[in-house]
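Hi F.,

I've been meaning to write this up properly since the lab meeting, where we talked about keeping a consistent format for the predictions we share between groups. The idea is simple: the sequence comes first, exactly as it goes in, then the structure tokens exactly as they come out, then a line or two of notes. No screenshots and no reformatting. I'm using this chain as the first example so we have something concrete to point to.
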Amino acid sequence: MSQPEPDLVATPDSGGRSCPPGPDRSPDGPAVIGGRAREHAKRMVRVVGYLAVWPLYVRTKLLDRWLGDQAFQMASQALSRYPGPIGNAMRTAFYRLTLPRCGVDARLEFGTILNQPTVEIGRHVYIGLSCSIGACVIEDDVLIGSNVDIISGRRQHYFHRLDRPIREQGGHYERIVVGADCWIGNSSVIMANVGSQSIVAAGSVVTRDVPPRSIVAGNPATVLRQR
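Output, unedited:
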């Protein structure tokens, strides 16, 4: 009987000729091996993140009975001060444990604070440095620059009466929705919904709902054109 031919691979030192793979020759190239190593490192960082935040999560759940949302806010403020990849992993792990929804690959940078435990964060979301996030839903594939404020609507404080201080007049909180595949530029203030696939220029103040696939800029933000 004829023996089966060995699998052949082309190697750089073979002049393009196919040679049987030896013990020191792998069919997987350096890019594949490097990709596997990076994925393994990411998984390890995620595990470290969960282990690091577990005591904080337990304490937050216990304090929630007496402090309500303030317990979550305290934890978010504390977590915002951890730098680097481990800090990012800790924030993602904690929010996956506490929020209704948070993508496993969401990334929240140093200094970013979530003010409400009702926030929802989709997959592949990036939130830059020193952001303040109120009650909102951030859908998949959203990019948010640094120093962005997402405020819970435009009517948080009523000011109709002059015989009472503004702080005593109450207000109305709205849940803002940032649609999928949006890009929010640095130092923007978001007080209304942003339609999917829209771009908000840096420094803009969004006071009215942005239609899908729009590019807006200014204070107050206006539509410059459609994508």
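Notes:
The first strand starts at residue 9 and ends at 10.
Residues 102 and 121 are 5 Å apart (CA to CA).

If this format works for you, I'll send the rest the same way.

G.
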